[in-house]
Write a structure and sequence with these properties.
Helix 1 runs antiparallel to helix 2. This protein starts with a helix and ends in an 8-residue tail after the last helix. By secondary structure, the protein is mainly α. The chain has 2 helices and no strands.
């Protein structure tokens, strides 16, 4: 169970670091804050909306995979205990 928690935490940290790095990279090279910048990029608003939607989708996928992994780990534990019960191997069968 600890390994599963570490994997979830690692995935979440990696996601947050990636988001922070991308925001930092877009803000680098300017002396002014992001709020005071005046840009004239054609379609800039649409680009930002697509960028945000992409990150939300990636975050949702990571969350989905984490939930599915937890369910599979629980199923595996249940099946292992059932197998031990059927075969009659308990703690003495584990190496």
């Amino acid at each position: 169970m600890t390994t599963l928690w570490n994997e979830k935490t690692g995935a979440l940290v990696a996601f947050l670091v990636a988001m922070g790095a991308s925001v930092r990279a877009s803000a680098q090279g300017t002396g002014a804050s992001l709020a005071s910048q005046d840009t004239s990029v054609p379609g800039g608003t649409l680009l930002m909306i697509c960028y945000i939607v992409l990150w939300v989708m990636i975050g949702g996928y990571v969350f989905f995979v984490m939930r599915r992994q937890k369910a599979l780990a629980e199923d595996l534990e249940r099946l292992e205990s059932r197998l031990d019960e059927v075969l009659g191997t308990g703690a003495q069968g584990d190496v």
